[in-house]
Amino acid sequence: MAQLSSLLQVMVGAVRKAGRKIARDFNEVEHLQVAKKGPADFVSAADHKAEQVVFEELSRARPGYGFLMEERGVVEGTDRSHRWIVDPLDGTLNFLHAQPHFAISVALEREGELVAGVVYNPATDELFHAEKGRGAFMNDRRLRVSGRRHFDECVIATGTPFFGKKGHARFLTELHQIMPHVAGIRRYGAASLDLAWTAAGRFDGFWERDLQPWDIAAGIVLVREAGGQAGAIEQTGDVLETGHIVAGNEFVIGELRERLKKAAG
Q1: Which of 24, 73, 75, 201 is surrounded by the most beta carbons within 10 Å?
Q2: Spatial separation of the C-alpha atoms in residues 57 and 69, rounded to whole Å
């Protein structure tokens, strides 16, 4: 493991502890108690247990910091300058179908700026971590975004609006603008890992709309610290508020934004 700052040690410790519980549940996925939260959007007992572990670990290590969590929502802290942004189980549907592509995602926001992020897949034991100004890593390996400059050689990741979620027609229009011009499109179902894989150069770029802050906060730090860009599709507004994100190197970002603009007409 690369040498971690005290901040990252806290974050990594929390996700690894939560990850052990999730890994045990994943091995017995057929026995999970599952509640239906919305159309095609499930939340499992593992989700709640992981969030509780992360909440307790981070609260003990940094008392007073606030939280924005997928299940628990906003938790105000006495320290108004720091906020944890947490997704305890991104890729729940994959998890419930015994597909080993899911992650725990934790980011730290300081004075409104994202300064650290950790994305951990307990099924593969791949730990992606980054801190502002210190670079991005996967376990011991330094990460760099892909350097490709030919769009037809690029593999682009995205997310498909699932049943009951808005944006189907727009997504298909965008897909038609991008798919014929790239080497391939991938949809794996966990935005935090899509961004981590973009930071690692496994994907050349990523775009998706209508995401929540906990889906993307940690991944944004990873991509930026890996030498890439991650921001709003329209280049205006706070990407954590709009939820419309593009990520990749400067060339790929430019191509994606141009084609998404064409799709919008």
Answers
A1: 201
A2: 14
Query: CA 37, 40, 41: angle at the middle one, nearest 5?
Result: 40
Residue partners of 144: CB distance under 8 A and separation at least 6: 201, 226, 227
- Return d(Cα 58, Cα 137) in angstroms, integer: 21
One domain for residues 98 and 173:
no
Does residue 13 sit in the same domain as residue 117? Answer: yes
Q: What is the DSSP string of 194-247?
A: HHHHHHTTSSSEEEESS--HHHHHHHHHHHHHTT-EEEETTS-S-HHHH--EEE
Q: Which two tokens stand for residue 30?
A: 């057929």
What sign has the CA pseudo-torsion 159, 165, 168, 170?
negative
Q: Is residue 131 located within the same domain as residue 168? A: no
Between strands 103-110 and 113-121, the pairing is antiparallel
Contacts of 101 (CB under 8 A, 6+ apart): 91, 94, 121, 123, 188, 189, 190, 193
- Give domain status of residue 1, yes or no: no
Same structural domain for residues 92 and 168?
A: no
Dihedral, 101, 186, 11, 7 alpha carbons, nearest 10: 160
Quick: pLDDT tens for 13-72. Answer: 999 999 999 998 888 876 666 666 654 455 678 899 999 999 999 999 999 999 999 989
Reported pTM:
0.94
User: Domain range for residue 22?
Assistant: 6-142
